[in-house]
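Hey Z.,

So I finally got round to the fe (ii) ion thing we talked about over coffee. Here's the setup:
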Amino acid sequence: MHITVSEEVASDYLADVGDILNNKDFLRLSDYTHHQWTNRLMHSINVSYLSWLIAGKLGCDRRSAARAGLLHDFCLYDFAGGTPTGEHQAFYHPKAAVKTSLQYFVISQKEQDAILAHMFPLGPLPNSREAWIITLADKLCASVELCRIPIALSRHNRVVVA
Ligand SMILES: [Fe+2]
Ligand SMILES: [Fe+2]
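And the result:
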């Protein structure tokens, strides 16, 4: 599996997340349908890119926002199944995403906390500006995706995984 990113995508963004986007196990997220119409990889890239843009505009840590946004749903299993703890998937998958992320990448405590809080109000209160950006970007992307409208890097083949 290989990812191709168009030249329209900011090179500064790719410098912040390139190690994740080029990881072949991370790209396996494209195997999982997400929000009925898209896949979990494309959703994660959109949350990441929007978070990076917003964080940059607000003078926040855009690298952390981009990386936590990209990893916020990094779970290599089908969300339709049950969870090992019996928790609802909404509460369980952020913890699973942190666990998987730590197995593959070096991520800061701020990034871990942002991933854990991305389902707010289902789960912990975001404790940084970057965490607030990610939880809002996730909800925005999910809402648009559920309406089957391409958003951010889903548009015009800006990102293609094949
Ligand atoms: Fe999620
Ligand atoms: Fe998400």
